[in-house]
Amino acid sequence: MKHPANIWLGASSFYSMKRFGVILLAGIILLAMKRPLVEQLHIRHIDSLMIVSYNVENLFDTIHDERINDVEFTPEGAKHWTSHRYHRKLQHISQTISRVGGRIWPSLVTLVEVENAGVIEDLLHLYGLWGKGYRYVITNSPDPRGVDVAMLYRITDLELLSKSEYAVDFTNAPYKKSRNVLECKFRLPNNDTLYAYGVHFPSRREGVGKSEPFRCDVAHLIRDRINHLYASLSSKGRLNTHFIVMGDFNEESHEKAIKEVLSALDVLPKDSVSYLNDYPHLYSLMSPKIEPWAKRNHPLGSYFYHHQWQQLDHFIISHSLLKANSLTQYQTGSAYNFMAPFLVSEHSSLQDSFPFRTYGGNFYMGGYSDHFPVRMLLSLKYPKPYK
After folding, report:
1. Which residues of 9-46 are buried (b: 16+ CB within 10 A; e: fewer)?
2. Cα 65 to Cα 82: distance, rounded to the nearest angstrom
3. Residues above pLDDT 90, as percent of the chain
4. φ, ψ at 223 (rounded to 5°)
5. What pTM does this model have?
6. Quick one: 90 exposed, middle or buried, by C-beta within 10 A (0-12, 13-18, 19+)?
7. CB 113 within 8 A of CB 120
8. DSSP assignment of 240-296, as one string?
């Protein structure tokens, strides 16, 4: 049985005694800067929302947690994960978030491969993101390594209405534990509703074929959840309620979990109004059939492995974001892998500018992540009385 699990809501007070020293320092810095901590701001009327998904490659703190297998990410562990390296990693993530939208700060950011709420607290409070209006939600997954999924959202752009997380029951591996699926319900500035799902599907490490059923189990959970919510909506609600699934799917858009289980189409409809209204059609924006990267000088994938690009990070959107009469619409051509000089490895070739990663095995490279972030834009319109 799939069920909601416990969840951490990051707008809450500081909570972890093991991080007391760092948090105290953050408080002193904030007081010195006399920066007010405003918990709720009025939602702004804005014309677009930027959404980002970023696998940050193992954002762990340096403190061993007896409940999980995180010894390698300690000063004494195989990766010699020190406080200096940890804070450099936080600085890199903050820099990426600040630059991914150009002049626009993202309204919603899914972060994949984060250890716990403490590292997100450090990211927000020590590296300027709290002052930009970011708050967060994070899962509390049973993953053996303690890996979780978090969402950062700007309280000037989005109102968090509810949050849930769902543990995955693996059909053929009842004792397998992995990352939970994060579900957040937001009110948009134009009063539309957005259900955003943050995901980190099981890896391909055991082999693509052997691990595929595990990814399909996660996809079934998400598809069932979207179908259930969609069925409960009225006709008007179906126009004003939208779904986005984002994160690291550990598979390409043509593979089974995305194409068959989620039933995510890889070709946009010719007629943006004609749909079967009783079924929530989904579209895989990162499919090369929808967004031809090569024509627009963007990386051919979000992940580079064995000298080949793979598009493992995705946005899957509902058909409501493609309707011409919707107040909230996907901005065509805005979904792509984000690449900037600071994110690119110095060992890249002229043909392939691959990610500047933090580690290569246990060798510290000092980079950002082994994935490029992906980004997209939603255009907003408002009911006539308001604009």
Report:
1. ebeeebeeeebeebbeebeeebeeeeeeeeeeeebeee
2. 15
3. 72
4. -60, -45
5. 0.89
6. buried
7. no
8. HEEEEEEEE-SS-TTSHIIIIIS-EESS--SSSS---TTS--EEETTSTTTS-GGGG
Model pLDDT, residue 13: 39
Nearest to 228 by CA among 217, 241, 216: 241
- Count Cα neighbours of 379 within 13 Å in the Cβ-side half-sphere: 12
Q: Which of 8-12, 75-79, 109-113, 376-380 has the lowest mean pLDDT?
A: 8-12
Per-state percent for the chain, helix, strand, coil, to nearest 5: 25, 25, 50
Segment 109-125, tens digit of pLDDT: 999 999 999 999 999 99
Q: If you search the block for the tokens 């994938």, which residue do you land on? A: 301
Buried b (16+ CB within 10 A) or exposed e, 367-384: bbbbbbbbbbbbbbeeee
**Of 218, 194, 169, whose CA–CA distance to 376 is shortest?**
194
Instruction: State in words which class domain 7-386 has.
Output: alpha beta
> Average per-residue pLDDT in the chain?
87
Q: What is the pLDDT of residues 157-207, one digit of tens each?
A: 999 999 999 999 999 999 999 999 999 999 999 999 999 999 999 999 888
- State the DSSP code for 191: S
Q: Are 226 and 280 in contact (CB under 8 A)?
A: yes
User: φ and ψ at 299, to 5 degrees?
Assistant: -55, 150
Tokens of 313: 């990070």
Neighbours of 335 (CB within 10 A): 22
Nearest alpha carbon to residue 240 among 316, 323, 335, 163: 323
pLDDT digits (tens, 9 = 90+) for 11-36: 443 344 444 454 444 444 444 443 43
Say how far apart CA 267 and CA 220 lie, in whole Å. Answer: 21
- What three-state secondary structure class fits 139? strand
Distance CA 86, CA 60 (A): 7
**C-beta separation of 18 from 61 below 8 A:** no
